[in-house]
Structures are given as C-alpha cells and as structure tokens.
Amino acid sequence: MSCKNCAATDIKYVYSFGGNDSEGNETMRALLGGKGANLAGMAALGLPVPPGFTITTEACAEYGKIGKEALFAKIAPQVEAALEKLEKTVGKTFGKGPNPLLVSVRSGAAASMPGMMDTVLNLGLNDVTVKAMIDLTGNERFVLDSFRRFIQMFGDVVMHIDSDLFEHALEALKKSRGVKLDNELTAADLTELIATYKKIVLDATGSDFPTDPMDQLYRGIQAVFESWDNPRAIRYREINDIRGLIGTAVNVQTMVFGNSGSNSATGVAFTRDPSTGENDYFYGEFLINAQGEDVVAGIRTPQQITLAGSKVWAARQNIAEDVRAAEYPSLEEAMPECFKQLDAIRNKLENHYRDMQDLEFTIENGKLYMLQTRNGKRTAAAAVRIATDLVKEGLIDEQTAVMRVEPAQLDQLLHPVFVKSAEAAAKKLTVGLPASPGAAAGMVVFSAEDAEKWSQDGKPVILCRIETSPEDIGGMHVAQGILTSRGGMTSHAAVVARGMGACCVAGCGEVNIDYKAAQMEINGVIIKEGDWISLNGSTGAVYQGQVQTVDPELTGPFGDIMALADKYRKLGIRTNADTPHDTAVAVKFGAEGIGLCRTEHMFFEGDRIVAFRRLILVAETVRKLKKEYGKEDLAELKAQALDAEELKAVEQYEAALAALLPLQQGDFKGMFEALEGRPATIRLLDPPLHEFLPQNDNPKGQQEMAEQLNVTVDVISKLVESLHEFNPMLGHRGCRLGIAYPEVTAMQARAIMQAAASVAGAKAEIMVPLVGNVKELALQKAIILQIKSDVEKAAGTTLEIKIGTMIEVPRAAVTADKIAEEAEFFSFGTNDLTQMGCGFSRDDAGKFLGDYVKMGIYDYDPFQVLDTEGVGELVRIAVEKGRSTRKDIKLGICGEHGGDPKTIAFCHNVGLNYVSCSPYRVPIARLAAAQAAIAENK
C-alpha cells in the first residue's frame, strides 16, 4: 500500500517502543493495550525487548466505524514512519536487502484475552527474502522452517484457509519421511512442503500467496483488527464480563527466532505458580529450536525452566532422572547464562509490577529477548495466596491485597473436593499435569459443541480433547473439567482453564482420543462418550467413574484474605437459609446471621406437605364459615350450630395447623442453635397456595394427593381450579394469605417464638412479606405481638423479637416513611421489586432479556445484577424515607442480588446495614463488601 494520497491526521495512532526511545509507557493500557503498554514499560526498564511499534486501540475503533480503506489512509503515514524508524534502530530493511527485517503482528487489548485474537509471525518472508536470509545466516533449514510456518499462519489467520489443509499436508510429509516431530524434517523436506502449501493457497483462493511485504503487513493488521469481533473473542468477553473496551491494539515487533538452531529456544514462564500461588521456584516451560506456538500447542513435550521444577515434573510423569537430564533438561541446565539473566528479569518485573507476571521470551543464538509481560491469569487459590504472600513480603499493602482478588473467583474455592478414602479406592487411569486445581466428575464428551448441548440438558460433562483451541471456549466454560492428551502447564487448555476456574488435567500422553469413534483409550481401558470420569486438577490424576466429594476446608491463605476483608468491610453479611444444615454451612463461611428464611420451603418435605395440603383443602371453607357466622376465633366458630361437614372442615383445619406447628418449631430451634446468638430474619408464608398442589396437567400427582387426603380426584381437581389465578405472582400471596388466614400467621409466629424461647440468646426477626400498604403490616403485626405475649407468659421469659417487612412492592418503597411507623426493619426483596418495578416476568423475561443486554438496553440482566438506575432508585427512596421516620431502622437486602459483587457495592453506597445471600456466596459477599468500602475511601 502506498501512502501518496493518504490523508494527514493530527491524532497519534502509532507509538514506537524499544531502542531506548519508547513513545508510550505502561500507564497507557487503554490506548496501547496491555501488551503494548508493557512492552514500552519493559523497554523503559532497560530489558532486552525487540523493538517495534503499537497501533492504538483507537485505530481499531476507527476501523469499525469508517472501514479499512479510510482507516489505513489515515494511519499509513504513521505506520510507514514507524517502520522506517524501526529499520534504522535494528539495522535491517523490511522485505528487502541483504539483511531483511521480519516482524510479528500481534493483538493486545487492555484486558488480557489469551489466545482469543489473532497473531501472525515471520511476516515479510517471500522467495527473495528467504534467499537473503539463507545467505545471511547460512542456516537453510531454519529459514525454510520459518517460511512454511508463515505461509501456514498467514493462510489460516489472514486468508481464512482451513488450517486442517496445512496440518494434513504436514502430517502426510512427516509420515512419508518416517519422522514424528516437525524439527526432524530436512531442508529438502521443507522445500517440498512449502511448494505444497503454496498450492493449497492457490487452490483455496485462486491467487498465489502474497509476496509484497507491505501488502502482507497491512493484511496482517487488518486481520488483528477483525479478530476483535470474532466469535471466540466475543464469547470470551461475555464469559469474563469484559466491558467498555473499544478494541485491540496491534503490536508490530521485530522477529527474533527461537527456531534458529540448538542454541535458540522459546518459552512461557510465570514468576509464581499460577495454579497454587507457590513461590518455591521459577515456573514455566520452554522448547529448544521452536517458535511460540509450539509451546502452547503441546505437540512437543515442553521442558521446565528450573532444575527444581524439572525434577518435580519428571516425578509426576514417572520419568527417571537420567532420562530427564538427557532428554528433557531444564533451561537452567541447558542454557545457564540465559537462565540466570531470565531469573533476574523475573525478579525485576515482579518487584516493578508488584504482582505475579506471565512472561514470554525467546532465545536467539544464545541471546535472550523478552516478548511480553502481563499480570498472569491465576486460579482463585493462587490469587488468594499470591495476594497474602505479597503483603507478607512488603510488596503491597493489605487493602491492595483485598482488591487483588476477584470476589466471584472465590466460588472456585468453595466447591467440593474428593473424599480421600473414596479417591484412594477409585481406579486411577493415568496421571497428567495438574494444570488447574479442583475436583471434577462428569460425563465424557469430545467436542465443545456437545459440552454446551449436554450442559444445557443438565448433564455434568468433562471435555476431553487432544488439545484445546480458542474455538473451544464455550464448551470449556460449561464443563466441570477439561482433559487433554497434549499440552503443558502453559498450553491453551491450562491457561484458559485457570482463568475461568475450571479443573484441568493436561498433557496426558497415555490418553488416546478417537473423535470419530467418540471414545478414548487409557492404558487399555476404553472410555466412551457419556461414561463418567473424575479429575483431580491438583494432582493430575484421572479416575474411572464418579468419585465422592466433600466440602473443602477453608484455612490458610483463604482465612487470611477473609480476615482482611472483615477488617475493612462495613456491610454485614447474612445468609439465605431454610434448614439447620444450610445455616451451619453459612456460619462456617462467616455469615453473621440469617437474612432470609423462606418458611414455605419447610412445607415441601414428607408428612409436612400432606399436612399443609389438608389445611389448603379446607382453608377457604373455614374462611367462608367465619364470615357467615361472624366469628374470627375458631373455638367460637365451633360453638355455632355447624353441620357435620362444616365441623369436620374446622377440625381438619385445626389439626393441620397443630401438625405443622412442632415441625416448624423444630426447624427453627435447629437454626437458632446453629446461629449461636446470631439474628435470624424469618419470612412468613409467601407463595400462593396453588404452588403446593399438583396441577391439572399432573393427573398422577392429583391421584396420589387424593389417596393421601382420602378424597376423590374430582375434589382435588376442583380445589386446584378454585385456586387458579391469571397472574399468581400478583395475586393471593404474601401478607394477603396471612390476612385471609390469620391462623397460619399465628401458627408460624408461635413456632418461631417457642423455638426462640428454647434456645438461649436466640434473636428472631419476623418478616411480613409483600406489604404494599402499612395497614397490611399493622394487621399482621397485631397477631404476632399477641402470640409474643402468650409465649412470653407461658415460658416466663422476655423474647428478643423484631417485626419488619420485605420491601418488594414499589408502593411500599415510595411509602416507606409510613411503613416504618410499624416496621423495625426493612429487607429488600429485589427479585419481586425488579419484577414489578421493571414490569418483567421472571418466568418469561428470559426470552428477550439476553437480547436487551446485547443491544445495550440494560447493561446486565436485571434479575442477576441490580438495575441501580431504576430499581436501585426505589431502594434509595425507601432507605431515605424509612430512616426519616425511624432513625435506627435496620436495612438489608435478601434477594438473589445479595450475592452479586456489583450489587453489593451499590448496597454499601446506599447505606444498607447488611446483605444476605446463599451460604456458598457468603465469602464472595464478604470480599465484595470490603472492596466497596476500600473503593469508597479511595
């Protein structure tokens, strides 16, 4: 491309780096991308960075707006000026001359997206520059190997030719020559392969492979820009909630060659173990006489950086020490001077960035070059350990450590682990590399597409691949675990699995996968699609069948980060729990009480559902009798001249309540005991009565219910019909049930208070649901206070009881000052508040909310992340009005949003006292609350 007619622009789109004259710096991540900013940063530190230049993310955004021709016309003068500067810096000429300059073209967004966007290496090669490079280096095989790699990568990434065509040609040639590895091919073999590759290009496109280096360069830049919006990159951003970025930068960098001979190498390393956070030695892998994609692809067995790491690796692979030293020596042994220099750079970069770094390096003819540094992807266990260790080492302070761990990441640490005895008894099939820790059991699938489909059907899956690629991201995201037969600790599978917290065992050479037959063979055992296997990502073990799991012990660094979180957070953290077991789990995770106990959940088990159905069967009859005779008290009603059927209905009503009372009381007692003096907010019956009955589309269920209650199916069917509502979520539920059937409110209140009276220090908070008018709360409160008086007299004690309401009706939010006259606390039920505030049905909105999010109507699904602009404003109004009436009113949130970190930040800012979430999200909420407090202070 010529820039003779190119339009001038005052906007700087291109920044040079290296050669002691970097135009950008490491603070410019948004503009230069993470890779470009850090390349400039490393160059400024005096590290051996191959010079180059970065085309900004703004150029990528412009590419999307104005298109290729207009954008390239704007940036071409700057690109070509930077290229000319690069030529002078390195003393080479791009695409010509006796010493040709070759470059790599790499992506680099502000947020790390490993493997999701495109890269082209060895750009600038053609028949002329190949000959010049051979004359210059005297190494024909190296140059030809670089050329065949370039054709293959450019053909795939830029020209969109099926990569399998190149792979099949390569494999066929190796087979015909009787070799297994690429580096065993001779120069003559590579010459033949290049000719085959060129024919593949011609056949696929109708044109010869492009030979003009400037044309290659601009097409490479275009491919990187376009890869920003490829399906895998979009999916990765969705999965990792990466938002607000305008595009990727493009880094054009002088090529250095790890495949130029036995004194050259390439590798990837981490300053600390990205799986565990350990800092025992330098973690990483390299290959001699290779380029970067060889390490990631895992076609050759990578070697370890350090001697210590190499010995650990060999022990895991059952490789004898003499074999290890001869065939797989560490970099420390094979190239001691380069290792010493790399190790010093490792320490310098970690001290500079004050975080664990992910490094890419190349050694060309004995000289070390640094290609990249970035904050490394890590598992939750590693994130927690690294953060707490860096505090102990004095590199960061406590608040920085708290901010370093993503709250949602903690979910990885809360999942079950294998029961030791069960794991010991399980049949071990093989051991691979412990690429990403955790325990996983699932049904074997061999494609990402099947993984997603089976997962949607509710099946737990283990994705088994020879090696993963960026296209597998969707299947990797839903899989319980990932198993690969090739690849090392820095392979695509390992890096991506660690980033998303998925259990992964990589590099299992004894796993032979046959995609066509949908099965794999492991040491003579055939595992077919759908069979169960179990993975231990912490040891690399692969087991046949399903291994039993148990909850993990949360100690050590996890305890340290939780202690720091508790030190800085202001919000209280409670749990949503309906059983003593869930309560105990939540307390173990640090819950400071129960924010929501849904009492209706206690009705669904065993004899309880039968008793409750007996109550429902006659409830409306009793209600009508009370109206007919003008008697609210059941004893007085029975004294009336009732006929036999009427009397039977009232007695059945009383008997059902009497049966339910001790059952609920027992549950509450167990929960108070588990809480050990912590408060419990207990919500009275909320859902409509029809939810407790088998509907008319379930004749079998109605038959069973009829037999249980000793009535006809016709009676059950008519009862179901009588309770039918066109919009039950806005119908006869919540406090409306308590007003219609006050005896149910009285029974539940009595069960709560008698349980509290039996447990020393019990603190109960009785919550009346779905109040929209203060008079509703006043009616229910009167019943509760009468029961409180009765129980206190009978027990000879004073109970610590609060009475409040759930704010989930918009009218309640805007009249909160009046409601606070009766309520001692508010708990925001944001599920229903969202449903009524936005006018979305929770049951039906899934059909369109995904599209709403993609279109930007809502940033997130408002049922997952609180709509702070709309529903949040209702919360803010209720907080202000409630406190205007009752200054000491306690305010919390108990909807599903209570465990969402973004919502927790809002709750902190709006001034709530606590959030409540499911037991397993309590640690996440504790950390998110601390981060909200720290962010406010900053």
Question: What order do the helices and strands come in, and which of them pair?
Answer:
Blueprint: E1 14-17, H1 29-44, E2 52-55, H2 57-66, H3 68-90, E3 93-94, E4 100-101, E5 103-108, E6 119-123, H4 127-137, H5 140-157, H6 163-177, H7 187-205, H8 213-227, H9 231-239, E7 249-254, E8 265-270, E9 283-288, H10 292-297, E10 303-304, H11 307-316, H12 321-327, H13 331-334, H14 336-353, E11 357-364, E12 367-375, H15 380-392, H16 398-404, E13 417-418, H17 420-425, E14 427-431, E15 433-436, E16 439-445, H18 448-456, E17 461-465, H19 473-478, E18 481-484, H20 492-500, E19 503-506, E20 511-514, E21 519-522, E22 525-528, E23 532-536, E24 541-544, E25 549-550, H21 557-568, E26 572-576, H22 580-588, E27 594-598, H23 606-629, H24 634-638, H25 644-675, E28 679-683, H26 699-709, H27 713-722, H28 735-740, H29 742-757, E29 763-768, H30 774-795, E30 801-807, H31 810-814, H32 816-819, E31 825-828, H33 830-838, H34 846-854, H35 871-885, E32 890-893, H36 901-910, E33 914-917, H37 922-937
Parallel strand pairs: 3-4, 16-17, 17-18, 18-19, 26-27, 26-33, 27-28, 28-29, 29-30, 30-31, 31-32, 32-33
Antiparallel strand pairs: 1-2, 2-7, 5-6, 5-7, 8-9, 8-11, 9-10, 11-12, 13-25, 14-24, 15-19, 16-23, 20-21, 21-22, 23-24
Helix pairs in contact: 2-3, 4-5, 5-7, 6-7, 15-16, 15-21, 16-21, 21-37, 22-25, 23-25, 25-29, 26-27, 29-30, 36-37
Structural class by sheet pairing and helices: alpha/beta
Q: What is the alpha-carbon Rg in Å?
A: 33 Å
Number of strands: 33
> What level of helicity do the residues show?
40-55%
Could you state the oligomeric state of the chains shown? single chain
Mean pLDDT: 91
Shape assignment: elongated
Major β-sheet annotation: 8 strands, mixed
Count of separate DSSP helical elements: 37
Which parts are unreliable, with pLDDT below 50 for 5 consecutive residues or more?
1-5
The fraction of residues in strands falls at 15-25%
What is the distance, rounded to the nearest whole angstrom, between the alpha carbons of the first and last residues? Answer: 49 Å
Which strands sit side by side, in order, in the main sheet? 14-24-23-16-17-18-19-15
